Amino acid sequence: MKNSVLGRAFGEEAVSKDAKYVFQTYGRQPIVITRGQGALVWDADGREYIDCVAGIAVNNLGHCHPRVVAAIKEQVERLIHTSNLYYNDLQPVLAEKLAKLSGMDKVFFANSGTESIEAALKLARKETGNKGFIAAEHCFHGRTMGALSITHKEKYRKPFEPLVPGARFVPYGDAEAIRNTMDADTAAVILEPVQGEGGVNIPDKDYLKEVKKICDKAGVVLIFDEVQTGMGRTGKWFGKDHFGVQPDIMCVAKGIAGGFPMGVMMATDEMAKAFGKGDHASTFGGSPLACAAALGTIQAMEEEKLVERSAEMGEYMRKQLEKCCKQDFVDHVRGLGLMIGVQLKKDGNSLVAPAREKGVLINVASDTVIRMVPPFVITKEQVDRVAKVVGELTL
């Protein structure tokens, strides 16, 4: 970029400066990504990759989708940020759109998935007056203290204990375990309709319906964490739509704004009444710029039928992976839409580097599942190449 005000660091310079000045909390791969378009990204050396990580299920529309870029450009010249001390002209438009798409009633704007989870936990406690939460084994809900408290994996939790008290974990997919774990102090049950970080775990079709019945009977709030499954990732607008269940509270983030940071917590009218003025807030939540990005994202998804494309390309990708992945360490392929897991029989983390060297970016969840969450705009030719590369990997 000529005459750029940005002082960029490339290649070895970026890596060395990162080591010197940035907290070393990420296990980064040794490439510096500098550009993206559609389902492709390029590194500082000009090498091209098919991106099946998509910012960890964020870039649903692909990189730099023209509709999102145009929405951001238009808004950035009008107003970037004000504050929630005032109304802005895009928040109510986006809230109405999200409410109609989701079947929920009220929207709280945040900046990330973990922030939306924190809002949901507070709302459930305020509504019920109870303190306890039930979550599922292998779940992931975030890394802030409240969200971390209801995240199952010990390696995330242990170094930061004591956490927020009151969380208990039950096997995912076992509704009776939830019934048997509830007590008089249970505020909410929180579940992912499909577990993402846990390894693309899909429940039986009646599981969420049964959990909803149990919660309703006990007067316990049901929260769906749709941070990863929302916004078309599973081939429907929301993961819950596969199961015909409407929660009391729902959290969405990742793909909601085309790569721009945003999270939302949505709730029923009755549930939303529990929050009064001052009960929760966010300085940056629902900024004009974030709302513009989200509205551009939704418009593109509707105009280009990208939710339907997620379903169609997801089915195609699963079939291609099943056809190509015949290695003795591969167990099976599963998924909904473009949220796909290749189940391995042993640790697969060592597969990431050779796939990258062959031009495909992949991610391994829970050590034994290759998680595929590419942009919805990925082409069949790109899927074929991905399946071929993954099918040639060795352990």
What does this molecule look like?
There is one protein chain. This protein has 395 residues and is of the alpha/beta class. The protein folds into 2 domains: 34-64 and 347-368 and 388-395, Aspartate Aminotransferase, domain 1; 68-303, Aspartate Aminotransferase, domain 2, CATH 3.40.640.10. It has 14 helices and 15 strands. A 7-stranded mixed β-sheet has the order 4-10-9-8-7-5-6, with helices on both faces. Strand 14 and strand 15 (369-372) form a beta hairpin. It is globular. It is found in: Cytoplasm. Belongs to the class-III pyridoxal-phosphate-dependent aminotransferase family. ArgD subfamily. InterPro entries: AcOrn/SuccOrn_fam, Aminotrans_3, Aminotrans_3_PPA_site, Class-III_PLP-dep_AT, PyrdxlP-dep_Trfase, PyrdxlP-dep_Trfase_major, PyrdxlP-dep_Trfase_small.
* Helix and strand element order: HEEEHHHEHEHHEHEHEEEHHHEEHEEEH
In the sheet with the most strands, the strands line up as 4-10-9-8-7-5-6
Beta-strand content estimate:
15-25%
**Continuous helix count:** 14
Low-confidence stretches: none
Mean pLDDT: 97
Oligomer: single chain
Q: Structural class, judged by helices and strands?
A: alpha/beta
Helix content: 25-40%
DSSP summary, beta strand count:
15
Give the CATH level 1 class of the largest domain: Alpha Beta
How many domains would you count in the coordinates?
2
Subcellular location: Cytoplasm
Pathway: Amino-acid biosynthesis; L-arginine biosynthesis; N(2)-acetyl-L-ornithine from L-glutamate: step 4/4
Keywords: Amino-acid biosynthesis, Aminotransferase, Arginine biosynthesis, Cytoplasm, Pyridoxal phosphate, Transferase
Main location: cytoplasm
